[in-house]
Amino acid sequence: MLERRAIDALAGHEDLESRALRVDLLARIAPDQPALDLALALVQDAWNAGARRVIERAFAAAERIQQKAKLSPESILRVRSQLEPA
Predict the structure, then answer these.
(1) pTM to 2 decimals?
(2) What pLDDT was estimated at residue 86?
(3) CA-CA 20 to 30 A from 76: which of 12, 44, 45, 65?
(4) Quick one: three-class SS letters along the chain?
(5) Distance of alpha carbon 86 from its chain centroid, rounded?
(6) Cα–Cα distance for residue pair 67/3, rounded to 1 Å
(7) Burial level of 40, CB count in 10 A (0-12/13-18/19+)?
(8) pLDDT score of 1
(9) Residue 21 pLDDT
(10) What angle do CA 39, 59, 70 make, to 5 degrees?
């Protein structure tokens, strides 16, 4: 499958846009806990870089992964609460 090959090819890329594309693809074809963990790690890295668009994209992918894989939303809520201004 072409999407699986793209996911594998993007695994070696550390830039935020490539990582965002990878989690988008994972949300579509391989939603599971490791994919959710990657999406949430991307949220935190994008936050540190000030990349608002990537933050929104990664959160959206995380939510799709959580829903499709029927995972607990707890980790998403925890990351959101850590990033909210006090």
Answers:
(1) 0.94
(2) 53
(3) 12
(4) CHHHHHHHHHCCCCCHHHHHHHHHHHHHHCCCHHHHHHHHHHHHHHHHHCCHHHHHHHHHHHHHHHHHHCCCCHHHHHHHHHHCCC
(5) 24
(6) 20
(7) buried
(8) 84
(9) 98
(10) 75
Q: CA angle, corner 31, sides to 17 and 58, nearest 5?
A: 30
Residue in 51, 45, 34, 31 with CA at minimum distance from that of residue 79: 45
Per residue of the chain (86 residues), what is the pLDDT tens digit?
899 999 999 999 999 999 999 999 999 999 999 999 999 999 999 999 999 999 999 999 999 999 999 999 999 999 999 997 75
Tell me the two tokens of residue 38. 């990657």
| Cα–Cα distance for residue pair 28/85, rounded to 1 Å | 31
How many Cβ atoms are within 10 Å of 86's Cβ, its own excluded? Answer: 2
Nearest to residue 61, comparing CAs of 83, 49, 48, 46?
46
